Amino acid sequence: MFLLLQHADARIGRLESQLRDLRQASAGATPEGLLTKMEEETNVNSYIVTQKLPKELEAKRKNVANLQEVTNQPALGQVRHQICLLTCTSRLYRS
Q1: Residue 74 and residue 82 in contact, taking contact as beta carbons nearer than 8 Å
Q2: Rounded distance, CA 21 to CA 87, Å?
Q3: What is the largest distance, in Å, between two alpha-carbon atoms of the chain?
Q4: Coil, strand, or helix at residue 89?
Q5: Which of 10, 20, 27, 37 has minimal Cβ neighbours within 10 Å of its Cβ?
Q6: What pLDDT, in 10s, does the model give residues 53-66?
Q7: What are the two backbone dihedrals, phi and then psi, of residue 64, each rounded to the nearest 5 degrees?
Q8: Residues sharing a CB contact under 8 Å with residue 74, sequence separation 6 or more, in sequence order
């Protein structure tokens, strides 16, 4: 029971704090001011969606392509083995 009361008191405190913050934020707010703020937020979001995120996505795609290219390359030991195999095969055909 005591724990329940503690949780309820903590929640009341958080809600009162949120209410106080909202009241302070809305003090002196006019419809024009709110509209201006919304337009600014819309412009920022538009920039993020149309310019910033596509650039970041393209950079990540290029990075993935580079990593895939590296992983598709044979390991150095495999390269040496392939060279040796080709050399030995070509010697067999010459003899």
Answers
A1: yes
A2: 78
A3: 96
A4: helix
A5: 27
A6: 999 999 999 999 99
A7: -65, -40
A8: 82
Q: How far apart (Å, rounded) are the C-alpha atoms in residues 44 and 40?
A: 6
Q: What is the 3-state secondary structure (H, E, C) of the chain?
A: CHHHHHHHHHHHHHHHHHHHHHHHHHCCCCHHHHHHHHHHHHHHHHHHHHHHHHHHHHHHHHHHHHHHHHHHCCCHHHHHHHHHHHHHHHHHHHC
Neighbours of 36 (CB within 10 A): 11
Chain-centre distance for alpha carbon 41:
20
Amino acid in position 64 = V
pLDDT of residue 95: 59
